[in-house]
Amino acid sequence: TMAPMRLLVTGGAGFIGSNFVRQALDALDCQVDVLDALTYAGDRSSLAEVEHRINFVHGSVTDAAIVDELVRQADTVVHFAAESHNDNSVVDPSPFVQTNLIGTFNILESVRRHDKRLHHISTDEVFGDLELDEERRFTEESAFDPSSPYSSTKAGSDLMVRGWIRSFGVRATISHCSNNYGPFHHIEKFIPRQITNVIDGVRPKVYGSGQNVRDWIHVHDHNTAVNAILERGRIGQTYLIGAECELNNIVVVQEILRLMGRPDDWFDMVGDRPGHDLRYAIDSSKLQAELGWKPQYLNFRDGLAQTIEWYQQNESWWRPKKEATEAKYREMGR
Ligand code: NAD
Ligand code: TDX
């Protein structure tokens, strides 16, 4: 029998990474190392359930020596670590350049040096935005056209991965997923910010016109797609991940209000995000046809109800972050 695969997961104390680690330990025969800098967005308690089954390393992907030592020991690297919030990126782009660009460069140089398999996690935001009435959705062929320091540094990291595949034969795959929701999502993000506001008796805050559309996917489905790519994905390929759930922000807020027993109009319109992308939409036919992946969460309202329940039952996880998060938004005027 083969030895279990040794996985290095960067950003494993974040939202998607921590959900991935739990799922990977269930789904794959693997041993897991997590490298996470525990920035404001990282929380070791998100891994409490699996703490005894992983090797947690507190360190940064910007530290080439730590990265190299961990990559050397691994078989496969799944690279989630990033600065992930658009609103922060327009206040101070600097950590986005460091983590998303320099951090990914360090990962690439190490997987090249030690000939290790890499899966690079990216976002649909690198393709820019769509008009509301446009038929076109994003595909693997869509051109990069990022709007923010967040999405442009993610696009830069993706382009490096492509260059390292072509020039050095690095064994990498890339995925671009749409907006995730689910448990352990940082409360700076739209859905958990509004759920925790309503719990606190505060009206949700919708940016600009509220007509902006996001294509929602449950974090569990994002991670089953990542597992499928790790197991069956073709080296060098890019896969788009999405679950065909386009909704505008007002519709999402009204679903939250209905599920939490508040009137439909119990929210405030606030100022807009600079450069705010209008619409994202993913065509995931390649992933579905090639790898046979399908989302399991087919009903957004059910997934949302489950997520609301998680925030109601896990106040000790998010409460310590609430005051500082809202203080940042007060500075931004939103
Ligand atoms: P997150 O902000 O919740 O988590 C990021 C994690 O990375 C945190 O644990 C943080 O401590 C860690 N980190 C940050 N800088 C680091 C550094 N220099 N070294 C090591 N660790 C560092 O983000 P998320 O929503 O879980 O996103 C994870 C990945 O998925 C990102 O690459 C993001 O671009 C991508 N993505 C996110 C979404 C989404 O909807 N959230 C959608 C598509 C793609
Ligand atoms: O209070 C809010 N009010 C509001 O209307 C917040 C925080 C957001 N919004 C809007 C902005 C967006 O149109 O809601 C939408 C979603 O906002 P975010 O949760 O900040 O996500 P978004 O900017 O779409 O980016 C997310 O999806 C793609 C993740 O944060 C990224 O990491 C991922 O790449």
TrEMBL record:
UniProt keywords, alphabetically: Lyase, NAD
InterPro entries: dTDP_Gluc_deHydtase, NAD(P)-bd_dom, NAD(P)-bd_dom_sf
Listed SUPFAM superfamilies: NAD(P)-binding Rossmann-fold domains
GO MF annotation list: dTDP-glucose 4,6-dehydratase activity
GO biological process: nucleotide-sugar metabolic process
A Pfam match: GDP_Man_Dehyd
E.C. code: 4.2.1.46
Residues annotated as domain NAD(P)-binding: 8-305
Cofactors demanded by this protein: NAD(+)
UniProt KW Lyase keyword: yes
Group of enzyme by EC: lyase
Reactions catalysed, as given in the entry: dTDP-alpha-D-glucose = dTDP-4-dehydro-6-deoxy-alpha-D-glucose + H2O
Family assignment from sequence similarity: Belongs to the NAD(P)-dependent epimerase/dehydratase family. dTDP-glucose dehydratase subfamily.
Classification via PANTHER family: DTDP-D-GLUCOSE 4,6-DEHYDRATASE-RELATED
Protein name: dTDP-glucose 4,6-dehydratase
